[in-house]
Amino acid sequence: KNEVEQSPQNLTAQEGEFITINCSYSVGISALHWLQQHPGGGIVSLFMLSSGKKKHGRLIATINIQEKHSSLHITASHPRDSAVYICAPHSEAAGNKLTFGGGTRVLVKP
Amino acid sequence: DTGVSQDPRHKITKRGQNVTFRCDPISEHNRLYWYRQTLGQGPEFLTYFQNEAQLEKSRLLSDRFSAERPKGSFSTLEIQRTEQGDSAMYLCASSLAGFKLFFGSGTQLSVL
Question: What number of other Cβ atoms are within 10 A of residue B64's Cβ?
Fold first, then answer.
């Protein structure tokens, strides 16, 4: 069983739609990162959160530590949001390494 | 540019050769991570440094792989006797403890 599960694996949306990506993890964590990777591009850290909710522009990330679950929401999606989104829990107990989810491939059509 | 830089960007080598990659983290970042990513997959953890100390090494890393971070600044990842299965993107990331990660652009290794 993977320590980090993301759903869905693939997602296609029309421009303007609201998108939600889910991440569940089995280990105790101190924080969780949401990362974005464009095709052929590098990885960019979107959020690091350890509780509650963070918002940056059209992106919102939430986390429930007790339920071991996090979500990334994209409001008013745009074709430039097309990328792979990866959640990566960070566990101090696991020696501070990050464990990556398999990623969610998002395609936003105009 | 004060981001994480990796060198080289691309490396093509023949099977059996040794290769070395370099990562320069953001200065003052005490944590440095190496990951490997193959096409269509998420990054896989290889190893992690806090300052100059290598605190964890993945079971994925055979004894052909070695990483160093002398003086807690730049890091090198060496692969000896490369195999075709080593072909991947090797990613470096750095952070200050408790803060966001910053990734380099990666080194794409192709073993022929």
Answer: 13
Cβ contact, residue pair A95, B45, below 8 Å: no
B93–A43 C-beta distance less than 8 A: yes
DSSP sequence for B67-103 = EE-GGGS-EEEEESS--GGG-EEEEEEEE-TTS--EE
Q: Dihedral through CA B80, CA B85, CA B88, CA B93, nearest 10?
A: -60
Instruction: State which residue of chain A sits closest to B93, comparing Cα positions.
Output: A43
- Alpha carbons A33 and A50: distance in angstroms, whole number: 9
Whether B45 and A97 have beta carbons less than 8 Å apart is answered as yes
Q: What is the tens place of the pLDDT at every residue in A10-63?
A: 999 999 999 999 999 987 788 899 999 988 778 899 999 989 999 999 999 999
Q: pLDDT per residue over B62-72, tens digit each?
A: 899 999 999 88
